[in-house]
Amino acid sequence: MTDTTAAGAADPVPAARGRIAEPRARFRDLVAAEWTKWWSLRSSGWALVATALTVVGLNVGMAYDTYRYWSERDTASRADFVRDGIPLSIAFSTNAAMLLMPALSAIGATTIVGEYRTGLIRTTFAAVPARRSVLAAKVCVVTAVSTVFGAAVSVASFGLTQAVLSGRDAGVAIDHPGALRLVVASTLLAPVSALVGLALGAVLRHTAATMTANVLVLLLLPLVFGADRYWAAVVNHALPAGAWTRLTAVGHQPVTHPWTAGGAWTVYAVWAVAAAVVAVASVQGRDQ
Amino acid sequence: MIEVNELTKRYGDTLAVDGLSFTVLPGHVTGFLGPNGAGKSTTLRIALGLHDPTGGSVTVDGRRFRDRPRGLRHVGALLDAHDVHGGRTARTQLYVLARSNRIPRRRAEEVLEQVGLAGAGRRRISGFSLGMRQRLGIATALLGDPPVLLFDEPLNGLDPEGVQWLRGLFRRWAGEGRTVLVSSHLMSEMENTADQLVVIGRGSLIAAESLADFAARGTRPSVTVRTPDHDRTALTELLTGEGAEVRRAGGALTVTGLSADRIGELALRHGVLLHELSARPASLEEAFMALTADSADHVTGAAR
Question: How far apart are the first and last CA of chain A?
Fold first, then answer.
């Protein structure tokens, strides 16, 4: 936008000062601003550290329990232990995933709900009237931070749990069947959850409502819609938690309604993209 | 220049702004006055693109503010000094906003200095007093060195020295050819601040004119005269004979239609003793009260 000086010339009063040519608006300036916003709040960093320690701690704790109360003494049962995929189910436990999801969605939601709560959103949008660009910048920063966070937590969990299990000679390497998929699926659970939180926050704008909705969508729906009945399973498979369960399933446990890993990856992608679109669209056509 | 055209805003059943039109010219400090709930903040929010109008439009320098990708170089605004995150420092807050508009970082330091917060830049905003927050809001408005400045009740929370300082700034910006719009619900705040007035009540325009014209609408200038009891009737007849309007108020007379000089002359010529002769200029406050009395949302008591 460069047409900044046209109006001033015709005014009968002295032309306003300071109207130097305006530089072209760049999206990356908005991303940089959002990046600084994120890291300039102490709570953002602490929330990530606390979540990381808890998630990794849960997984390592489980590995340590297995190590401590090791009962499979002979070589054959140890092979069964590995073949059934128990090392992988310990590498990133369901409990850890159930904790990671609401924590990351809360962190994602805070980036927008925090602005509505304080009123900062009006200052932000008065400085950048292109509201959708602001939300798109938030999507970028939330995605980047949560993906790096997810990777760090998943890799640390896998590495540490398998190191502990190695003490019983029962750990597996990353090239073990299903291991890499488990690490990647657990990594991406973080950005998917964070984007869901951001979208719900942008739509609902209130802290309590957003946090309730986060827990409802990410944790309660998978409980209500179990994977046993057909229609419930259809819903279950369409949820991020269901997709994570499918992608991290190991061994040969029978499943009532089987589905493909490709389908599960698609569920991840659809949730992430839909959340991003909802977050960006939510600021249009509503009073701020 | 700000142009408000047939602006209407409805929130559910409430009509906050009702067919409002006025123009704010550059080179002046324009006071935006009205009782609480008159629609001032709504109008300013629409001007800043934060709320969408139900009908009509507001343009700033010929364009809807909402259509500009970045705003700080076009309009500087302070709507509410609390619209910040208390967890950040003043510097970070300004730096983030500057960055989003591609304004160099040093500009944040400059405006902090200008508003007298250079020493508090590294402190968290949560520890700021209302006055300091107002100053930070003013610094924010100045970041882009904009030709148009909007302030919603900016004098709230400032100490008398701060009020003086801000009035000086308003006048300086207007002198530089900027458009300065300052809202208030107190006439007394505008009396020494604005030279143009836009007065609204219940979302509609009541007056848009210079401060002097507005003052002339209200009570006419009057003169208070006190004389000894035995001279009062004689003086009343004398002044009425000259075409003045005389009202008796306690022991004094309130005279309209004659200047104090003329009354003094008449009294001297007719040998009437005067104990007091004082001119009372037209009161802006009274003019404002009279004009907005019908449109005030909550009129207290029976003061009508």
Answer: 24
Give this prediction's pTM: 0.85
Residue of A26, A36, A122 with shortest CB distance to B79:
A122
Instruction: Name the residue in chain A with its Cα closest to that of B60.
Output: A7
Whether the pLDDT of residue B217 is over 90: the answer is: no
Helix axes A131-166, A42-68, angle to 10 degrees: 20
Touching check for A105 and chain B: CB below 8 Å? no
Least confidently predicted of A26-35, A77-86, B149-158: A77-86
Instruction: Please name the residues between 60 and 79 in chain B that touch chain A, using a CB distance below 8 Å.
Output: 61-62, 65-75, 77, 79
pLDDT at site B152 = 94
Per-domain residue ranges of chain B:
2-215, 222-281
CB-CB under 8 Å, A126 with B75: yes
Q: Is the Cβ of A127 closer than 8 Å to some Cβ of chain B?
A: yes
Residues A268/A238, Cβ–Cβ less than 8 Å = no
pLDDT bucket at A7, cuts 50 / 70 / 90: very low
pLDDT at B250 over 90: no
Distance CA B168, CA B145 (A): 17
- Residue A254 in contact with partner chain B when CB distance is under 8 A: no
Instruction: At A180, give phi and psi (nearest 5°).
Output: -65, -40
> What's the average model confidence in pLDDT over A79-90?
88
pLDDT reading at B282 higher than 70:
no
Q: Which residues 170-189 of chain A have a CB within 8 Å of chain B?
A: none
Q: Which fold has domain B2-215?
A: Rossmann fold (3.40.50)
Question: What is the CATH T-level fold of the domain B222-281, as seen in this structure?
Answer: Alpha-Beta Plaits (3.30.70)
